[in-house]
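Onboarding guide, step 5: your first structure request.
Type a short instruction followed by the sequence, for example:

Predict the 3D structure of this protein.
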Amino acid sequence: MKMLKNILPAILIALMLFNFAKAQNSSGKSDDNARIAIAPVIPEELMKMPQGVQEMLLGKMRQIIGLNGLSAMDDAPLFIMNPELMIISSDVTPTTPAMYTYNMEIVFNLADRYSGNVYASATQALKGAGNTETAAYNSAFKQIDPRNGKYKVMLEKGKEAIIEYYNTQCDLVISRANSLAAQKNYTNALAMLNSVPPVCRECFDKANEAAAVIGANMPETKVTVTSDNTKPDGDGPVYSSLDAVDLGDNLFLRYKYGKNVGVKTMLYFELINKNEEDVELKIYRIYETMLINEKGAEVKIEQMKIAEKASDNWLDVTLIPDVNTELVCEFPKVKEVKFIKFFIKENFFKFKNLAITN
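The system replies with structure tokens like these:
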């Protein structure tokens, strides 16, 4: 009995230490996994759907990814989420107006962009009805709940597979990045190397070394940055360095690419923190962000998005060292961006002649 009394406290202490260690490991893992980027993608076979339907489906995938601890980035280089849609039955009534009805099943896959290997998936049955094809699809896709537990299970399984991929296929990642750099596709090469999460420490270090070599051999960009003057419209200087503007305090804003999606022009930037610690950045007066289009007309921003937050007024974000944070500006569709102006940290910062794809 005396021995049992001595053993019980030891067991309790061991259990407490185990649970504490488990909590610590889960916390760190969660923080690092949040830096894993997944691109929501509409496959070619679903491109025939109306544009508005595609946008709703993309939005649902972004929510599923973001709400379950990963980063939804449209240009994530290695991993994608793509849907498979199976129409089980469909009907169009002969009435006026006609009524479209669909019974369908959707499968979301978390996959390797290059090989197509699927690491995790989740399935949901949907029913939709409406007086147009778009309305019927949208009524079905509205039933997708990004907080559903099945999606959490899918993403948890996917996280483990992705970390295992980086730990076992690191040389392949670096080889692909070097191949892109050899083709002078420096942006995508560096994006691939920057996608390695810090939790994969050995691969993360190797990727940083490879990125440093590629960066040292890059030619100077031809993108024109900032205004012709050394002072902005507000008080204080405008700083610039190649294709990035210096926001001060070792923070930088760099242009990545732009594209037209339906009736929108989406401009993708990244915020870079070169400090050794996290930095809190607040961006006010977003509504003052504007561009000059091909006709010389001013076009006001509709919203700015950082991570999963979107606003036309103000946003705040925590910038982590060595982890670039995506910033997206959404405008009404334009053909050219002659000039864009931001108000950040009490200054106006400017870019000129940004390339966009239609």
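Each response can be followed by summary notes, for example: Residues 2-33 form the longest helix (32 residues).
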